[in-house]
Amino acid sequence: MNMQDLFALLPMITLSVSILIVMLVIAFARNLEMTCLLACMGLTATAAATIWVAMTVKPVYVTPLIIVDSYATLFSGLVVTAAIFISLSAYSYLKNRGDKQDEFILLLMLATLGAVTLAHSAHFGSFILGLELIGVSVYAMISYPVKGLFSLEAGLKYLILSGVSSAFILFGIALLFAALGTLSFMEMARAADLNDSASRLFILAGATMIFAGIGFKLSLFPFHMWTPDVYEGAPAPATALLATISKGGIFAVLLRFFLAFDGYQYSLIIESLYWIALLSIFAGNVLALMQNRIKRVLAYSSIAHLGYLMIAFIGASILGGKQLAIEACLFFLIGYFITTIGAFGVVAIMSSDSEEHDNDELEQYQGLFWQKPLIATFFSAMLLSLAGIPLTIGFVGKFYIVAAGVESELWSLLAILVIGSGIGLFYYLRIIFAMTRRTEIKQKVDIPVAGGWALGTLTLLLVYLGVYPTPVVDWVADVAKSMI
Amino acid sequence: MIILLVIATLFIGGLGAWLIEGWNKDMPRWVTLASCAIAAALLSNLYLSPTEHEILLAGVSSTWIEHLSTPWIPRFGISFILAIDGLSLLMVTLTLFLGFVAVLSSWDEIDHRPGFFQFNLLWTLAGVVGVFAALDLFLFFFFWEVMLIPMYLLIAIWGHENKAYAAMKFFLFTQISGLIMLVAILTLVLVNASNGAPITFSYFELLGHGLDEQLSFWLMLGFFVAFVVKLPGFPFHTWLPDAHTQAPTAASVLLAGILLKTGAYGLIRFTVPLFPDAAAAFANVAMTLGAIGIVYGALLAFAQTDFKRLVAYSSVSHMGFVLIGVFAWTELTIQGSVIQMVAHGFSTAALFMIAGAIQHRLHTRDMTKMGGLWQSAPRMGAIAMFFIIASLGMPGLGNFVGEFLILMGAFSVSKTITIVATLGLVTGAVYALIAMQRVFQGGATAGIKIKDFASREMIAMIPMMIGLTWIGVYPQPIFDLVNPVLASLYELTQSPGHIWIGVTP
């Protein structure tokens, strides 16, 4: 390993060092403000390092485990930025809840490190490392408010199901290793021999098991059962992290693995993905209709959104549509990150005085528009973006997905997308309508400084990129081109 | 540049109205009036000193009064193209005019959050102006959706007893059909690009694309559905009566006056010129739907006891004429459709304003509880009489010209459909006169007395009366404005290879 390689690892090193600093500071002096400030500084430094590396380093393997290329820097930049916003909103959420809240921020940074590892991973070794780093941090984050039964239940549920899914993934990896004799994505692609029927069977079985495990983590149908309960029970910032950083990191590996290994040549996998996408969109949207809690609505809508993402993912199986489909995946994920973090940021702000349960009942939002117009406007923007209405980044994301679907001629998936979006409007608008009711909200809502600014910035980003997406479009187009 | 300024004025005016609310509750409506006035003044430049741009549309020359184009998302060949020709200019003028009417009609109706109300009003107007001016398909779709949300909020916040249902239905219908159009737009663009042309969303470059017939037909249907839902044509009209009855007066005026026209405009501007052969093959079905809409709308209007529902169903009936006119696609019928759009914009907006005024005074829309209102409100009665007569197609008023031209042109295309459509004139007279009789004539029931129209309402009504009479007596200025546009669109569909056939007499 030379200096050049070490420099390529700068973001990971920066993040690890800041985690250590934060941990030591907590050990000596518990002060939530100090912890959050240090965490944000560390994350900002990591983001800066990522940009620096992205601008100077050519694609390079640092050990067989880690690859540093524009794809990796895009994802690690994304998750680190997301972590900054989540920690700002977490600070506002935590500061009124007793004096032992510092470790939450630490866990948040650890999970981010896991996602950064995933973004860089080109090997199943680093994949498992990153996956478990996220998993273990998230268990603790979900059940962090120890007094609440709901969060304990959610934490336990996630622990068991996530453990099972990790076991699936490990078993799948073992099968692949048995067939191919290597764990590196690139070498696997080289070793794969389609004509050997025994190894083909091993590969198919292994890939299926890996996919089942990843389906759990991404909460795709039929592995989505845990999502609403865990989303509901976890504290809002933990839910935001689970929905964005965790899923984004895992998706980054999935896409990289599929592109490197050319998993698209296995038509059986593509066919089952087809049904998974279709049913995720359908089930997510239909089940969201019946919910009265905002977090549950967002949980089911995230199932549907991952289904939309899968349309583009499948689109990459058609040779002519590959470039557009990868771009669509990347852009859609960026939009999904901004919107989801914003939406849970609102729930976090609304829950500043909640006890066992976050304030996420629809009733508690009635009349918000007239009492806290700013928060309500932010939330409406987030919901409209989730619904894919123009002027928001969600619209451009959905536009990208439709374009990828058209280019790869996935007509039935596009039909279900149109139907799903129609159903989706219904439950998003129901929330907006509740906020415009002429009633008084019961609970006290104060807009905290950190969380408020984070939310305002996200809304601005959402509108800016919704109106003028060209900078991000060009960026993801470059990255997608480098991946083919 | 001017049209961009018009749109920007409306957007910024909307924000201003919202912000000024905190300072003074009466100011927002003045801000709206001022924004509309500034926008109208800007627009008048286009009438007074038009600069002419010659642009070839698939080989046919056309004249544009204004043309603005800058790259927006180059990755997809999306440009920010705003262009104005005679047709767009006419529709934008109508939009701004009805904007004035909408503000005046709800002058003292709104006491809950007036600033936010005016914000939504102005943003709807801005979206509609954008729809009439956008000639990049992406930009067009963008504005198409932008006008929905403020309209949704207008109905959802300031609507009447069943507003949640009506607002949701309105939004779902238009949004889902809009998404179908988005898929059609993207397919058109991407398939066109895969044939070797550079990727582009520009209307000017997509005209005369050489997509194969079957695909064109499906794409045409995608556009058709979105526009016919908005029109609204049978059988996609069911959102309209609900939306109209629940909407506050100003929203009804905008909805009937201009939002419905965006559907008709889309058919004339996009559906037929982009897919001439497919549209010709589909013409019989579309015209039949139009004829059914005319008769069905009229019958349902006759059966209503709710004044606003009656006017709403009459819109379904009148817009059936536009559908026939567009799909008969003779020069006569397209001209008739444009006249019908403007005239219907005036007459229905006025009728909704009258219905809203009565509801404001009596707190009911139920016609069985009215009667003899003429006695206490003679001005209102006389004006209602005027617009009801206009709406039933009395010669000498605007609607007659439109319907007459459509029927005359369509006769040479399909006799059966024209004859059925003509029935609509008879049934139209029935429901219109019934409404007049129930509301204004007869003895005053149980001593109902209402306040007559004040001068503010007269200010809104008189220009519309003048307008309708003018169109009815001397429609030539409108023809002068739009005929070059319609002629070039018509020629476009007749160019070699695209001969308007398939309609059996």
Give a structural overview.
By secondary structure, chain A is mostly helical. Helices cover 77% and strands 1% of the residues of chain A. Chain A has a domain at 283-484. Chain A is built from 20 helices and two strands. In chain A, strands 1-2 form a two-stranded antiparallel ribbon. In chain A, helix 2 runs antiparallel to helix 3 (32-56). Chain A is globular and about 70 Å long. In chain B, the strands form two sheets. In chain B, strands 1-2 form a two-stranded antiparallel ribbon. Chain B has a two-stranded antiparallel ribbon with strand order 3-4. In chain B, a hairpin with a 2-residue loop joins strand 1 and strand 2 (60-64). Chain B is mainly alpha-helical. Chain B has one domain (2-494).
> What is the percent of helical residues of chain B?
over 70%
Strand tally of chain B = 4
> What distance lies between the first and last C-alpha atoms of chain A, to the nearest angstrom?
27 Å
* SSE sequence of chain A, one letter per element: HHHEEHHHHHHHHHHHHHHHHH
Query: Numbering strands along the chain, what is their spatial order in the largest sheet of chain B?
Result: 1-2
The assigned structural class of chain B equals mainly alpha
Structural class of chain A: mainly alpha
Strand segment tally of chain A: 2
Overall 3D shape of chain A: globular
State the share of residues found in helices of chain A, binned by percent.
over 70%
Strand content of chain A: under 5%
Radius of gyration of chain B: 22 Å
Which stretches of chain A of 5+ consecutive residues score pLDDT under 50? Answer: none
Biggest sheet statistics of chain B: 2 strands, antiparallel
What shape does the CA trace of chain B take? globular
Intertermini distance of chain B:
46 Å
Order of helices and strands of chain B: HHEEEEHHHHHHHHHHHHHHHHHH
Low-confidence stretches of chain B: 501-505
Radius of gyration over C-alpha positions of chain A, nearest whole angstrom:
21 Å
Report mean pLDDT of chain B, rounded to a whole number: 86
Give the largest interface pair and sizes. Answer: A-B, 32 and 33 residues
